[in-house]
Known about the structure:
Helix 1 (6-32) packs across helix 2 (41-70). Helix content is 62%, strand content 0%. It is mainly α. It has 3 helices and no strands. The two termini are 39 Å apart.
Amino acid sequence: xxxxxxxxxxxxxxxxxxxxxxxxxxxxxxxxxxxxxxxxxxxxxxxxxxxxxxxxxxxxxxxxxxxxxxxxxxxxxxxxxxxxxxxxxxxxxxxxxxxxxxxxxxx
Length: 107
């Protein structure tokens, strides 16, 4: 990926990210769920994209964990909040930024 044109890089990465879930959702809605109306179909596509992105995140974490075990390394500690997206950590950081200290989830 040595392209200097940022548009080409963006289109390639968007195609790699969106093509598999859109094809999966198309085949599910076309062949298995023939009775779907036009209102439900976009939600099937959205659910497929969200499921695909969650799958990619979990696959990358599992791959990194396996790679670290093969090399006898230690994974970098992650900060994990109670809410999805770590919104509680962001809120705590905004309310008192001078006294806030991030804690690792590995402790």
